[in-house]
Amino acid sequence: MSSLLSDANQRLEKALRYVTIDEDVATRLHYPKASLMVSIPVRMDNGSLRVFQGYRVRYDDSRGPTKGGVRFHPSVSMDEVQSLAFWMTFKCAVLNLPFGGAKGGITLNPKELSKFELERLTRGYVDAIADFIGPDIDIPAPDVYTNQMVMGWMMDQYSIIQRKITPAVVTGKPISMGGSLGRETATAMGAFFVMQRALPQLGQSPQDTTVAVQGFGNAGAIIAELLYHAGYKVVAVSDSKGGIYAPQGLDIPSVRHIKEANRQLKAVYCAASVCNDVEHDVITNEQLLELDVDVLVPAALENQITAENADRIKAKYIFEVANGPITSSADTMLEERGIEVFPDILVNAGGVTVSYFEWVQNRSGFYWPLEEVNNRLEKSMTVETENIWAIARDLKVSLRTAAYVHALNRLDAAIKAKGTRDYYMN
Ligand code: NAD
């Protein structure tokens, strides 16, 4: 088995020690159900032809059609997409959504393409995977370097192929094309609800809690701002080019404003207002991870905390907004050092939860106000945080193992309902 997926599977192996589920179920969950690799030829603006590699994986659909984001990034590979689809399977089960797990992606550096090229590539990707997706089969959504506009192109292209408007094929769409209010902020909002539930119980009041956020994109910038407005001291943030650190706390709305205007945090280092208002140091991403803070929020990519740097992490609590930012070997090291990790399959599940709300709204044709979206999200995130906490306490296991146990019990019920060895042979 390939590296990322086998690392992901180690979490499953660990959780399997604490549940009594059917052996058939465990066997099934070790393998992705279907993996598609496609080549997408794109006419570039200069007239040349480039062929891009794209992927879509449906990991398990026992609980419903599969659901998962589409990533545009140079490191996208079949291994990465399968691992992300694996996590989506467990995430949907943790939140009790009627979905299985999927993921997709294209290997490219989106910053090198023009907007025209990006649109042609996205539409070409949908042409290539159209038979593999659908509102009752598999529903893509945004992920790293894909956004509302990309989802709108995907929905439009799929509708052209099907010769009918099919909004429920993709979530995270622009509101004007059937998107849900609150979807853009949902991942960060969901993480915020988990933190609001957990941190006071751990004796951390906002004004006495320092936070570092790695990754200042859709998820990271919004969680940083939500925490800032709730009174937490967000002392460091970073993007792919590096980070900024101010022990007295950063003015996050200004940092966001400058980043949005200049498209990179680097612009914040220089003459703009944040520099004048708040003293700060320029730090690397490695330094950000190792800061002496109460809370660390990795919100960029996977494999950021590994066996190599785990013993230098000083945060007391880690909330995984990114998918898979901690490797399984680093997990063990952090656990031994008493650092509590709130796992990705709970913390960042707000995105898929509101994607589910969007799918429901598309299928019913009735659209909800923002307040309803956020109230339902808060309820789901709070209930499942409490459920996982209770399992962790009962079984004396980490929150990650507890989350897998919780998901496994739900997956077990769905897979068993169709009959297992136990049923047929007894
Ligand atoms: P995004 O593309 O909006 O932002 C990614 C950010 O990470 C950018 O600021 C980028 O500069 C930064 N980054 C990239 N490489 C980095 C590095 N080596 N060090 C530090 N920063 C780096 O993506 P996003 O949607 O915010 O997703 C971020 C993470 O959250 C991913 O792991 C994604 O799978 C996860 N996630 C996102 C959603 C969602 O709805 N957007 C839902 C669930 C999980």
Please give a structural write-up.
With 426 residues, the chain is α/β, with parallel strands linked by helices. It has two domains: 32-177, Rossmann fold, CATH 3.40.50; 180-426, NAD(P)-binding Rossmann-like Domain (Rossmann fold), CATH 3.40.50.720. It has helices at 3-16, 23-29, 78-94, 115-129, 148-162, 183-201, 218-229, 252-262, 273-277, 285-289, 328-336, 344-347, 350-364, 370-395, 399-416, 421-425; strands at 34-43, 49-60, 66-73, 100-107, 138-142, 210-214, 233-239, 242-245, 281-283, 295-298, 317-319, 340-342. Helix 6 crosses helix 13 and helix 13 crosses helix 14. The radius of gyration is 21 Å and the shape is globular. The structure holds nicotinamide-adenine-dinucleotide. Nicotinamide-adenine-dinucleotide binds at residues 142-145, 187, 214-220, 238-240, 285, 299-301, 321-323, 348, 351.
